[in-house]
Design a protein that fits this description.
The chain is mostly beta strands. It is built from two helices and eleven strands; from the N terminus they run H-E-E-E-E-E-E-E-E-E-H-E-E. It comes from Dactylosporangium aurantiacum.
Length: 150
């Protein structure tokens, strides 16, 4: 038996055991699918960065989508927090929303597409890049990273 036949049989049996009420009315409106999801870009091994200056405690990640690259780095700060710095490529003015374990933090990018959060509690973080009203009118989507741990 192929998959289509099996699924048709299951649908028929489920319809007999628990049919949809005839008087059930509902409407479904689908909106908000103007979101682009980034993917994490693999980082080079630490040995490849041996000649790079900087704090060994700094961690970096790069996320890419069809329209935007988001680069972030975080450095330990006081009392179980990190400082998170980020850059957008191409640079553009956007509203950044960090979804953190303590709730959302919002900030705007500067002209160079840079943003920073002084204190982010360690744990899962997700970045949402919201376009300006003008960019949205031109079809720019909200860009979202997968959750990552800082």
């Amino acid at each position: 038996m192929d998959d289509d036949t099996l699924l048709a049989d299951l649908r028929r049996i489920a319809g007999r055991l628990d049919p949809v009420p005839a008087d059930l009315l509902f409407s479904l409106s689908v909106t908000g699918f103007d979101i682009e999801v980034c993917r994490l870009v693999p980082q080079p091994p630490a040995a490849a960065l041996a000649g790079v200056r900087g704090d060994e405690a700094t961690t970096r990640a790069t996320f890419e989508s069809a329209s935007l690259t988001i680069m972030v780095e975080w450095t330990p700060a006081a009392k179980g927090t990190v400082r998170l710095d980020g850059w957008l490529a191409p640079p553009s003015p956007c509203r950044i929303e960090l979804r953190t374990v303590d709730g959302p933090q919002t900030m705007d990018t500067d002209e160079g597409g840079r943003f920073a959060a002084q204190r982010v509690t360690r744990g899962e973080v997700q970045i949402r890049v919201h376009p300006t009203t003008d960019q949205e009118a031109d079809g720019a989507p909200t860009v979202v990273t997968p959750s990552f741990v800082v």
